[in-house]
Each structure stands twice: as structure tokens, then as C-alpha cells.
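[PROTEIN RECORD]
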Amino acid sequence: MRNLMVLLACFGLVLSCGSVGCSKSTSETKNACDLSTWVEKAKSGCKLLNMADLRNADLSGDDLNRANLKGANLKGAKLEGTKLANANLSRTNLTGTDLRDADLKNAILRYADLRDANVGNAILDNATLGNANLEGANLEGASLKSTKLGRNAGDKPVNLRGTILTNANLSNANLLSADLSRAKLAGANLRGASLRGANLTGADLEGADLTNADLSRANLTDANLKNTILIDVQWGSTTCPDGKEHNTQSCSYLP
């Protein structure tokens, strides 16, 4: 019975606050689609939240697993500890959003805007972030195991310029051609990660573990490799921190 009530409430919201209705500026649709309405539906268990206006909303700890938030505006929202596993967050505005400790396993974040978001200690295992923008985001301590961050299935590589990934778990992550320039990856777990063609210029990889990682065609100019673990790394046309290209020799010879 509760599931039926949630479904009916959700359906009513779609009728009154659908993407077409909310795009109009009439007072009637504005009242129907105000923040409190969207928040109320989200907290009631409604999963149909595509195109919702949830700017600065507080949904910390709420259950939004499998929610459809495609195209929603969550700029500045508080989503600390929120359950978003298997959620559709494609083309969602998450700039400046607090996603600390959030569960985003298997979430779809294609074309999502996560600039300056705080994603510290969040779980993004096996998530899809093709074409996403994470410039300046804080992912310190986050888990991104087997996450698709690189060029995949026609997607553009993810923008991770200046992103904080200190102590993050990126084991087996797809970072093909990703832009990690000036990224902070100290202590990160990059075991088995695909960094083929990645831009790591000026990146801080001190103490990171790149065992079995693919660094072929990667650009490591001015990168910090102090105490970096480079066991069984795949090299090939790799540009080392000194700016010189090496086909087979490891960059680990550099001080």
C-alpha cells in the first residue's frame, strides 16, 4: 500500500512538475515546482526526480537509490551520506554539492557537472562518469574501484584537472585519456588502472601505488613520483617528469 501511495504521489508530481511545465515561468507552475515540493517528494520515497530543482536542498542520509535525477539541479545541495546507488544522475548539476560519504555505486553520472563538489570518502565503485566535469572537486579518500572515468564507448575523457584524489581508491579504474593535470593523487591506489594517454602533467603522485597500471602514452611532465610504486607498469611512448619520452624504460629512475 505504501509503495502504491508513493507511486501515485510521484505520478502527481510528474504531472504538475514535469520538465515541460517547470521550464515555464508562470506563477502557477512556479508554485507547483518550488523547492519544498521537490524535497517533500524526494523524502517520501519518490524516485522520479528528473529535471527537479533541488538547489541547496538538504537530503543528507536520504534513500535515493535507483532514483532518476537526470538533468536535475542539485547545485550546492547537501547530500552527505545520501544513498544514490544505481541512480541516474546524467547531466545533473552538482557544482559545489556536498557528497561526502555518499553511496554512488553503479550510478550513472555521464555529462554531470561536479566542479568544486566535495565527494570525500564517497563510494563510486563501478560508476559511469563519461564526459563528466570534476575540475576542482575533492575526492579525498573516495572509492572509485572499476569506475569508468576515461574515454569509453564514445564518451570524452573526464575532466579531473586539479582534483583532490589523495588516498582515493582508483584500482582498475578506466582513466583512458583522462585529464589529471595538477591532480593531487598522493597515496592513491591506482593498481591496475588504465592511464593510457592520460594527462598527468604536474600531478602529485607521491606514495601512490601504480602496480600493473598502464601508463603508455601518458604525459607525466613535472609530475611528482617520489616514493611512487611503479611495479610492472606498462610503458610505451610515455613522457616522464623530465619531459623526455621513453618507450620501455621506467620513469622511476628519476630522482
User: Anything to note?
Assistant: Residues 35 and 121 are 28 Å apart (CA to CA). The longest helix spans residues 2-17. The mean pLDDT is 84.
